[in-house]
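so my prof wants the structure for this chain in the tokens format not the other one, which i didnt know existed until like an hour ago. anyway here's the sequence
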Amino acid sequence: MEERQIQKAHKLIVNNRKTSMVTGVLDVLSFDLNEILLETEQGMLMVKGTDLHVNRLSVEKGEVDLSGNIDSIAYSNVNSMAAAKSGENFFSKLFK
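here's what i got, hopefully its the right format
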């Protein structure tokens, strides 16, 4: 079985809000013309804009090149999302 190499470094470079290069990418969860959601070494990364495209994806290297009109970039912590889900499960079990 082939093992997946884990890359610890994460870098985000944005050029003139038109292109972006991201390293430390674990997975591309979703993408369309207005939103791209990436799982990175530093948490979930959401890129919003218009006419967004994933130009290059290298899962082995953990690199993604994006282009389009970038309006916003936001991170969310994976651990906080998992904690919120576990709290939701606790309350749903409590009120059954």
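also thought this was worth mentioning. The first strand starts at residue 11 and ends at 15.
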